[in-house]
Amino acid sequence: MVRTRRAFLETLPLAIAAVLSVRSALAQSPPSARDFAGEVAVATMFGIESATLALQKSSSPAIKDYAHRLADDHARAASQLRRIVARRSDIALPDRPDGRHLDMIRDLGALQGEAFDKAYAAAQRDAHRELAALLEAYARNGGDPELKAFAAEALPLFRDLAGQAQALKPAP
């Protein structure tokens, strides 16, 4: 079990870096409206589910405070996105996170104590950096005016969450 946790913690930054490099390469051309909405929906689900884990597993008051705010902010963004998509027939949002995000939630759920706090903080830093890059690319070059406005409005919020995630520390 300790070896599995250590292996997870050692490989998590590499996996996230690979995802971020793919995302930055794709940032040159924004995704379709359907793909953008799906990626944002998955990111908000991951945020809410990982925040729930943090509220249950972390002993760090700073991480718990962050998780409360993150859950609220992600729920608000998800609700706003659902309202936009509800008026349309060309976009259907996923009803659960994708395999990569489910794996990250499962891996976080297997950790305890300081190992959880460190992995959670790293996951939030990377997830919010990735989401901010997606929102920025779509706000700048997106093809759907309504989703483009959503991206521009949501971007400062997720940049702020990314900045707060940088400061997260495990409980002493």
3D shape: elongated
Which spans of ≥5 residues are poorly predicted at pLDDT below 50? none
How do the helices and strands follow one another from N- to C-terminus?
A: HHHHHH
- Work out the radius of gyration: 16 Å
Quickly give the CATH architecture. Up-down Bundle
Note the total helix count. 6
Total individual domains: 1
Distance between the termini: 23 Å
Using the coordinates shown, work out and report the CATH topology. Answer: Ferritin
CATH class: Mainly Alpha
Please report which band the strand proportion falls in: under 5%, 5-15%, 15-25%, 25-35%, 35-45% or over 45%.
Answer: under 5%
CATH superfamily: Ferritin, core subunit, four-helix bundle
Notes on the protein architecture:
This protein has helices at 2-26, 33-57, 61-86, 99-109, 113-141, 145-166. It has 172 residues and is mainly α. The protein has one domain: Ferritin (Up-down Bundle). The two termini are 23 Å apart.
